[in-house]
Structures are given as structure tokens and as C-alpha cells.
Task: structure prediction
Amino acid sequence: MNKNWQELVTYQPRVMKLLANSIQKQRLAHAYLFEGKKGTGKKDAGILLAKSFFCENLQTYEPCDNCKNCRRIDSGNHPDVHIVEPDGLSIKKGQIQALQEEFSKSGVESNKKLYMIIHADKMTVNAANSLLKFLEEPNANTIAILITEQYHKILNTILSRCQLLSFHPLQPIAIQETLEKSGVAKHIAALVSQLTNDLNAALDLTKDDWFAQARLKVIKLYEVLITRKGQAPLYIHTEWMNHFHDKDKQDTGLDLLLYLYKDVLSIQIGNEENIIYHDIVQQIKQHALQMTQRSVTEKITSILEAKKRLHANVNPQLLMEQLVLTLQEG
Result:
């Protein structure tokens, strides 16, 4: 589902303000390069710009979302809006040439045309050179939108012909609020928003059974560490390693444990609004009274150290056994 203008303003206020001003003043650039990490709203912004460009009932700068043009752009079948994506691993010269042929014809419904190239950094050298010729002689009513997560891979000659708009990673609070609005429980939304700044990936995590189980196993380990200290190595052997059985999953498990100890520290220093594990906050408050700030800070440091060692290819089971022995102390 495509985002509306106000939603994107929440995530990318600077970019959307620049586009709004350009639309209102009728000073849209011939070519834009939208760059930023995955999940930051680049394609959504491109679709919105296309709708504003073609909208029959434009409201200052926002598309109406109701006219024939808006609806067809939303459904992906407007004859004068073309989206090019990699064919396999790259965007090939033939794809750019087909686009140029399409644009050499007059617009099907008006003299306007817009094209969007997704993963523009994946153009072959020949494709990029073909596009360059295209960008050097822009038609008055043609807009190009290039989208990339790796703008350092784009040819300088192409960069120099585009207006660069940088999309910043989404803030955790923006992701959390969006997830809560879509019905995700607060304690899950708060946790997921710390793990990724890609809204789509965050939504996927909230529906992932493995992740739901992982969270429960981390809480259980934390409880074992506090109430049944001697049993933590056994817990790692019998339950932890079966669930967190590869490096990426181990890394996620360590992150989830890290946020739990950060919650203890947040309570101790009076930052209760930063709590992530809302559903067990009473337990965390009790534990916060039983530990010194120094001890909690040392535990956080131990987990961060374990994350580093995990990426240095230390045996995961050995690493976890050593970590829980350290966390049991103090």
C-alpha cells in the first residue's frame, strides 16, 4: 500500500518540504536522485511525486488520490509513468533503450512523462552511458527519478545532472508509532523499532513466529540469570542454542538481551520513558533495585563485547556460556 503525503512528511520532513516547494512553484527538476538506506520511503516519495505531476485535481502540492491518473499510478498502469528495475542482477542497456524508445513517442494522454529507475546503481556501464545521453537532452515535461541505496556507485557524470535528495534512516519512535497505529502491541513495536530502521522489515518481524519465540527465550534467560544463576549454562545448552542456531540469529538474541539490561539502567537513572520491555516493567523495576548501576553497565559492556567476538568467528556456544558466567556475577 502506497503511503500518503502526510505519512512521508513524518519520516522525511526535509525531502518532502523540498518537493512540495518545487511542485507549488512549478520548478520540478528534470532529474532527481533519491538516495538512502532500504526502507526509508524513496520509492513511495517517487510515486507521490508522479501522482502530483499527473494529478487532475492537485491540492497545492498534494495529489488528490482520487482522479483517474492518481488511481492508475497507484495500481501501476499509467501509460506515461515507467518504472525500470534490475533484470536479474543488473539493469541492462536494452532496458534503457526500450525506455528511450517509449519516450521518443509523444505522451499517450498528455505531453508529460515520468520514469523511475529502481536500484540505479545496478546499471551496467553501457546502460549508464545510454541513460547519460537521455539525461543530457531532457524534454521540458519529462521527469527522471533514480533511486539507490549506494549512491557512491553512480557515475559522476550522472550525479552531476541530478538533484540529489538524501533520505535519512527512520527514527525508532517514528517506526514504533506507525507499528502501534497498525495494531502492533506497544512492547513489540518498541523492541522491533530498535532492531531495524526499515519499516517493511519491522512489520515483517512483528509477524515472525521465530522472533516472538526469540523474545520469550531472552526474557527466560534473563530471569534465570537473576533468580537461578547456576542454571544459566544449562539453559544455553538445552534451549538457547536450538533456537539461535546461526550467527544472524545469535546476533539478534544478543541485541534482545542488551535491550533488557538497558531497560534496567533506564529505570536506575530515571529514564522510564525509554523502556522497551513494557510488558515486564514491574519485574525490571524490582531487579533495578537489586543491582548497582556499575554492575548493570558492566553487563551491557559484556554483551557488546560478545557481539564483537561473535563476528570474529568465536564458537557461538562457547561464547554464550562464557557470557552467562560473566552476567551471573554481581
